[in-house]
Amino acid sequence: MSDLTRMSAAALAAALRGGDVSSVEVTRAHLDRIQAVDPQVHAFLHVDGDGALEQAAAADERRAGGEDGALLGVPIAVKDILVTRGMPTTCGSKILHGWVPPYDASVVTSLRAAGMPLLGKTNMDEFAMGSSTEHSAYGPTRNPWDLHRIPGGSGGGSSAAVTAFEAPLAIGTDTGGSIRQPGAVTGTVGVKPTYGGVSRYGLVALASSLDQAGPVARTVLDAALLHDVIAGHDLMDSTSIDVQWPSMAAAAQVSDVDGLRVGVVKELGGEGYQRGVRDRFDEAVRLLVGAGADVVEVSCPHFEYALAAYYLILPSEASSNLAKFDAMRYGLRVLPDDVAAPSAEQVMAATREAGLGDEVKRRIILGTFALSSGYYDAYYGQAQKVRTLISQDFAAAFEQVDVLMSPTAPTTAFKIGEKLDDPLAMYLNDIATIPANLAGVPGLSLPSGLADEDGLPTGVQILAPALEDARLYRVAAALEAMLHERWGGPLLDRAPELDAAA
Amino acid sequence: MTAVSTRSTTAAELMPYDEALSRFDPVLGLEVHVELNTASKMFCGCSTVFGREPNTQTCPVCLGLPGALPVLNAAAVESAIRIGLALNCDIAAECRFARKNYFYPDMPKNFQTSQYDEPIAVNGGVDIDVDGQPFRIGIERAHMEEDTGKSLHVGGATGRIHGADHSLVDYNRAGIPLIEIVTKPIEGTGRLAPAVARAYVGWLRELLLGLGVSDVRMEQGSLRCDVNLSLRPDPGAPYGTRSETKNVNSLRSVERAVRYEVSRQAARLATGRRVVQETRHWHEDTGVTTSGRSKEQAEDYRYFPEPDLVPIAPSVTEVERLRASLPEPPAIRRARLQADWGFSDLEMRDVVGAGALLLVEQTVAAGASPAAAKKWWLSELARRANDAGVALDELGITPEHVAAVQSLVDAGRINDKLARQVLDGVLAGEGSPEQVVSARGLEVVSDEGKLSAAVDRAIAGNPGVAEKIRAGKMAAAGALIGAVMKEMHGQADAGRVRELILEKLN
Ligand SMILES: [Zn+2]
Questions:
Q1: Does residue A393 register a pLDDT over 50?
Q2: In chain A, which residues have their Cβ closer than 8 Å to the Cβ of B45?
Q3: Which of A13, A205, A407, B396 is paired with A115 by a 20 to 30 Å CA distance?
Q4: How many domains does chain A have?
């Protein structure tokens, strides 16, 4: 068997199905890889070797018993924002240090039911606030393409784990681009499903109306296979959509764009976007045209207000969602100095002061202010109006075209530390991904090549109307096939070899 | 954890009630929180049974664990709509929940999922009866929310947070469905303000019991009342500054709290001081209110629509189905029962005023005559309820018990005096009337031989009295009956004793 960690999830599933390899072997190979390279990459906050091998053995037994799930026995890494029974969940924050949840997120329940061993929990910006994973309280994750650069965020751990072949698949969550932007800067595939497509039960909420869990993978088909496992109606999540989803994996194997109407979003490109990012985007568009797609420019005039609206809605919801971290029931508890018999309020304040990072505090303060009496209408109220207008822009655009396209992120991976002191520059990373969260539509980021100027990965984003997630896979699979042909193989083949001397 | 601050609890200066009313016009407002009796909580599947071991009825949702999400209890929404309809409110075609944000250890998420600017029921009104006079109460709104957990302050003498050395929180109550019913400002009560407040809350309890949506047990906190009161110089003047007295948890206390606040506020206003806008605590034991947290700098709850829940949009068909399921309106029901029972207006008013309408109805249904049912509930049991400071239906005796007591009396197995002891036994939790009678040995002595011998001894011991009876002075028989009853420890049928005496002396 060739290096198991280099295989796609689909190839691993086929090998498992053919009896060429066991889940225990596949899982062990990935655990070995983690041990070898994660000290450099730091994609994981927690590795559960024993648990993963146990689950792998159980998967092998299930297969021996005649079961054949699409990803049965294929291991996976999970972003540390989804609760896992018996496995620590920190959300990248000190305030949850040592907390072991008593229950599984619905996504995790689905993974377990599908027989996918859980390798561990991946690093992230604290409570998913950030675009670089530098805001993790447990130290940054590094981009396997260049260890001095960021892997994107907030789900940099998941994208880096997949990029560094530490896991064939991972789960990310995307509130404003936290799956797609890391995908773009690491040369991997990331999908934010339609809001309500994947249950949020057990996803520690950042912004409830924006959060969505989704697949992180190396190929479009792998992402689709994982999407099929985690999507579906969940009675535990009131915002979960009750529809029968078509097979994403089937859509990813159609790869036909003849006659497809593609809209290039005028507002998401041009000035502010790195040269190499634009070049690779234009190339991708030309490939689609060559394959028979009709490409037109589409204007979404309210997208220019998306970032501002997002940075009012997100902090507002977050300020309320994060209020529960108060030291009363779980997690960190810090007693204030110089207070003999502190009150509950004093303990809450001391714990939050010590347990939450600067970016989290910044957004809580912003949100608290935006919701304050007398300011609500001007901030939260106005932001919701913008949100409606953005949805209307999408609706109008999708009258003309089947999918929209833009670069996923304006730049390639920047250096660790480069934007840490400039929150506004950091926020701009998500300028192209945020509109999809505000409108609840699905989006996919696909590697589009390497920027000429720095040799780092770039990504294109494909957006479809709500519920049309399958369309993303159909288009992305076609584009991926053409790109692979052009590159002579997957983009990750060109990533530098990590020094695996553990 | 210790108290946040200390506040004076010195008794406030009071103006005699009648004088206060001659100088000021009161305006009332009542906010009643009702715990619904749904089997599960508002947003999760946990049980709502009262009184279980702390923190045994909890789950990730009602503990507010990271990642957990609420799912709305459809039965709670139905109850809310039925309450709204019974209060003659408009039911919102679509409404949402909102988050009320504030930090408190008994609130697992540090926000309460409530309704804010989109309540499920608005703009209703009801007619109640106050000392025989009809009185119209406007209903501003009824909205849904979740209850908080319960803090237990340990250490210190009072059980209050002040002076305690630490606190424990029981989250069994967290997430229990609540309906908050808010009146419009109630004007024009004049000196009847305390009676109106009491009558309204009593009427509401009766309504909710009839709807079957809540246990409405004030002593268990399943019905909690906040009393808002302000005074103004005369009925034409703008409203004065109001106080909000929290958790007034018995009908009697509602009445007393209103009276107290009228006297307290009047004393302040009359001496040129202002009434502070604040929440006040009601002290059941001393019958006073004390200052709580000041509302002058209104707490900012940063309400915003709850993003984890979808809007509620009850269909017209659904609302009409629920309307059709409502029980008979109280006024019509009263008229029907009065006719059935043959009670006078005065008798009926007594029954209603005592909050005993449903109890009498159920006692009659259990087999007692209307007169007997009324007698027990309005005399013996009313006295005991009053002594205990609870409502009649909170006494711990059921209409079935009362009917059983009466049937024992009717069968001659106990007399009225023994019946009172039977009631004591039932109230003390000794079981059913039948069980109390046999356990306490309360049955009337019907052994004719024993009774006859006792009568003989009484006659022999009181020759003078016997002589009078022989001479036709029947009234004297009472003395002999008393002697027999004393010897039999009250366990004799006084009627039969009288018969025996007369037989023997004639
Ligand atoms: Zn619960």
A1: yes
A2: none
A3: A205
A4: 1
ipTM for this model: 0.96
Residue-wise pLDDT tens digits, A290-301 = 999 999 999 999
The first and second tokens of residue A459, run together, are: 């990504």
| Centroid of chain to Cα A29 | 24
| Cα-based angle B282, B285, B286 (whole degrees, multiple of 5) | 75
Contact A101 B310 (CB under 8 A): no
Of A366, A433, A482, A415, the closest CA to residue A140 belongs to A415
| B376, B279: one domain | no
Closest residue, chain B, to A103 (C-alpha)? B60
One-letter amino acid of B219? E
Residues 252-311 of B with CB under 8 A from A: 298, 300, 302-304, 307-310
List, for residues B394-438, the tens digit of each pLDDT value: 888 999 999 999 999 998 888 888 899 899 999 988 889 988 888
The stretches of B354-398 forming alpha helices (DSSP H) are 357-365, 370-378, 380-388
Residue A182 lies in a domain: yes
Range of the domain at A232: 4-301+389-494
Q: Does the distance separating the beta carbons of B66 and A91 come in below 8 Å?
A: yes
Examine the domain organization and report whether B345 and B468 are in the same domain: no
Q: Tell me whether residue B6 is in a domain.
A: no
Amino acid at the residue B309:
L
Q: What are the C-alpha distances in Å from A40 to residues A30, A135, A165, A442, B194?
A: 16, 18, 13, 33, 75
**Within-domain flag for B290:** yes
The HSE-up count of residue A131 (CA atoms within 13 Å, CB side) is 30
Query: Encoding tokens for residue B338?
Result: 């009065």
Catalytically active residues of A, by annotation: 79, 154, 178
Distance CA B312, CA A200 (A): 20
CATH number at residue A159: 3.90.1300.10
- Measured between beta carbons, the chain B residues lying within 8 angstroms of A317 are 304, 307
Mark B416-434 as b/e (b = at least 16 C-beta within 10 Å).
eebbbbbbebbbeeeebbe
Long-range contacts of residues B354-357, Cβ cutoff 8 Å, at least 24 apart: B354/B378, B354/B382, B354/B392, B355/B202, B355/B205, B355/B206, B355/B251, B355/B391, B355/B392, B355/B393, B356/B382, B356/B392, B357/B206, B357/B333
Domain that holds residue B276: 31-318
CB-based contact A201 B101, cutoff 8 Å = no
CB distance B341 to B370 below 8 Å: yes
Statement to judge: residues B122 and B268 lie in one domain: yes
Q: Is A83 on the interface with B (CB under 8 A)?
A: yes
**pTM (2 decimals)?**
0.86
Q: Is the minimum CB–CB distance between B348 and chain A shorter than 8 Å?
A: no
- B22 domain residue, yes or no: no
CA B21 vs CA A72, A336, B188, B227: distances in Å: 80, 51, 12, 18
Chain B's closest residue to A84, CA to CA, is: B67
Minimal Cα–Cα distance from B96 to chain A, Å? 13
CA atoms within 13 A on the CB side of B392: 27
Q: Does residue B117 belong to the interface with chain A, where contact is any CB pair within 8 Å?
A: no
Q: Which of B289, B251, B247, B327 has its CA nearest to residue B82? A: B327
Looking at the fold, whether B263 and B288 belong to one and the same domain comes out as yes
What whole-number distance in Å separates Cα of residue B109 and Cα of residue B101? 9
Task: Give which of A96, A472, A248, A114 is closest to B65, Cα–Cα.
Answer: A96
Closest by Cα among A289, A84, A249 to B60: A84
Q: State the nearest Cα–Cα gap between A68 and chain B, in angstroms.
A: 31
Q: What is the pLDDT of residues A39-73, one digit of tens each?
A: 999 999 999 999 999 999 999 999 999 999 999 99
- B170: helix, strand or coil: strand
Greatest Cα pair distance in chain B: 93
Give how far A353 is from chain B: nearest CA, Å.
15
Q: Report the number of distinct structural domains present in chain B.
A: 3
- Determine the Cα–Cα distance for residues B208 and B210; give it in Å rounded to an integer: 5
